[in-house]
Amino acid sequence: MIFDIEFQEDDIKIIKALLEKYPECELISCFPFYQPNIEELLVENNIPHYYSEFITTWDKFQGFLSLEVTDIFIAEELAFSAKILSKNAKKNGKSLRAFCNVCQSSWDRTESIKTFFVRPEDIYLYDGIIDTFEFYVDSRNVTKINTLYEIYAKDQFWHGNLSQIIVGYIGDENSQYMLPRFGEHRLNCGKSCAQGIKPSCHICDKIIELEEFLKSEKIAVQIDK
Asked: Which of 6, 34, 51, 60 has the fewest beta carbons under 10 Å from its own?
């Protein structure tokens, strides 16, 4: 359930009635962003909830760990530390959420390949780390969710350009010519390349160089899971 931020105490009665009527559904309320007064009201009434607010910094992540939320929605650079985030979240009884099919960066001119997103081929790497992936789609084309679900959840591969399924991706990189090392490295790299911690790390650049060669030679990559 997603509620508008115009939230009144009387709405608590409706939510509690739904929870009591459908206990088997394990209903969880979702709110646009955190507000102390709403958080206090929800906790007082034992209402399971989380916020769809994107958490992109360590301080904010630590702050959300202290709240009585069920899930934390990570995004942008912070999502490059998924393993560490997951460990801390589970220690505090919380789950992680993220978008998989959209380029995410706090700087809109970041090269697409270096933004956070997850290819269908790499989705299995996040099993047990990111608990729920959501699809980013235009509200005018919600039927696309069914197609994305087939690609990500069932097929788990995409024999086409990333720009066709990753929103905001600029470039003609083709997923079937990219080595699995790409997803494995990004799982918990902390985006060290942007911090200058590992100036010798050019994994993304090298993957693209090799992708161009394999594509020119028509040599597709087979991933064994």
From this structure: 6
Looking at the DSSP bridge assignments, the partners of residue 133 are 98
In the prediction, which pLDDT does 7 show?
63
CB atoms < 10 A from the CB of 161, how many? 15
The pTM score is 0.90
The reported pLDDT for the residue numbered 198 is 59
Q: How far apart are CA 196 and CA 211, in angstroms?
A: 25
- Fill in the DSSP letter of residue 191: T
Cross-strand partners of 51? 31
| Location of structure tokens 């931020």 | 5
Which helix (H) or strand (E) element contains residue 31? strand 29-31
The C-alpha atoms of residue 5 and residue 224 are separated, in whole angstroms, by 45
Confidence band, pLDDT 50/70/90 cuts, at residue 152: very high
Dihedral through CA 152, CA 157, CA 160, CA 162, nearest 10? 50
- Residue 92: pLDDT band (50, 70, 90) is very high
Query: What tokens does 159 get?
Result: 């024999």
Element spanning 156, H or E: none
Burial (CB < 10 A; 0-12, 13-18, 19+), residue 172, is: exposed
Task: Indicate if the alpha-carbon torsion angle 189, 122, 76, 211 is positive or negative.
Answer: positive
d(CA 169, CA 175): 12
Q: How many CB atoms lie within 10 A of CB 74?
A: 27
